[in-house]
Amino acid sequence: MTSTVETDIVQPQSGTNTNLQLKPKGTGAVTISGQAMPTDGGLFTGRNMVLNSAMNVSQRGTSFTGVAASAYHLDRFQYNLNGTVGASTVTQQADGPNGFKNSLKIDVTTADASLASGDRLTLVYKFEGQDLQRIKKGTADAEKLTLSFWVKATKTGTQIVELFDHDNTRHCAQSYTVSSGDTWEYKTVEYPADATGALDDDNSNSLSIFFGLACGSDYTSGTLATTWAANTNANRFVGQVNNFDSTSNNWQITGVQLECGDSATPFEYESYEESLAKCKRYYTSQGAGVIGYWNGGTNMEIPFQFFPSMRATPTVAVLNATPVISNKSNSSTGTQSGMALVNSSGTANGFYFVQVDNCDTGTSPSAGHIGQFRTDNFMSFAAEL
């Protein structure tokens, strides 16, 4: 039996100094706005499953021009493109609704008012399966999910945001409406529980959030899949407006929160330090102060240590090919151009060795000489989903 009590104030009995207690009877639960409260300690901690949800971390940079292919820009959010859809500038923008100082902004620089049937441009967030076991997908106890976020878009009208289950090739899409152009609006979207298809308990991509931006008829010609179903491309983004039909268009987002339950709770803030540490599991760059040694000629081997461990063995790339290098054995210092990756080996958990060429510091170092890289961010390590 459920009872409803309407009142402005609830307080302990008069004359007592005890704390107010909300206690379920038997095995029941206390719920607030449809959200069950934990009964064994902790209050709402860690309920948001999205990392960098306030768009505060952007290790790769803060502005990216001429974007016309799939890539990560702000940490954990991927500009995801199938086909060809115009071009844009993606920035970490110092603009947000009250309570948020940053957002991810997509500014259309090359319009595409006539989308090809197979074109699909979305902003995607990807989850590891082992981080989603709490939603109990694929069981009789599967949880409903609520997605909340702030959006600011020039283009008004219907927009689509889809959950896609990669392990079982299932999806569920919901719509929201941008009512006022270029105005921050708060949106909440609810997804039903799915008792079909458990998510793998591993470090691979099990579920993604797809925010629709511009989609061709291959993805819009069916009936929107508002309940969980086997994937049909035509049902994924039905009704989605084309945010890329004019170079006057912008699209921004921040405050993204995905949580269990059928109601959105207040945004879960975390410190920049916490967000950065979590993002480094997927991408990090290192440079200044790193010590290596010459193994003969102009090749240098450099050990790296990851804190925290990365999601998987990373892909290595050279970010700065002209670092300043000091030869600690003879005090020679030089700015080297054309530094190139020779090979690399290691794991996600421990030391990672990288061998690079063109590291002679203006002299001819002998094998075993110690060198120090003095320019920041000359190597990047990516273990994205």
Features:
Elongation Factor Tu (Ef-tu), domain 3, Jelly Rolls, 385 residues, mainly beta, seven-stranded antiparallel sheet, globular
Short description:
With 385 residues, this protein is mostly beta strands.
Model description:
With 385 residues, the protein is an all-beta fold. It is built from one helix and 25 strands. The longest helix is centred in the C-terminal third of the chain and has 8 residues, at 272-279. Strand 22 (340-346) and strand 23 form a beta hairpin. The two termini are 45 Å apart. It folds into two domains: 63-278, Jelly Rolls; 280-382, Elongation Factor Tu (Ef-tu), domain 3.
Summed up, the helix count is 1
Report how far the terminal alpha carbons are from each other: 45 Å
Order of helices and strands: EEEEEEEEEEEEEEEHEEEEEEEEEE
CATH superfamily of the largest domain: Galactose-binding domain-like
Strand content: 35-45%
Average pLDDT rating: 91
Give the name of the CATH architecture of the largest domain.
Sandwich
Total domain units: 2
Structural class assignment: mainly beta
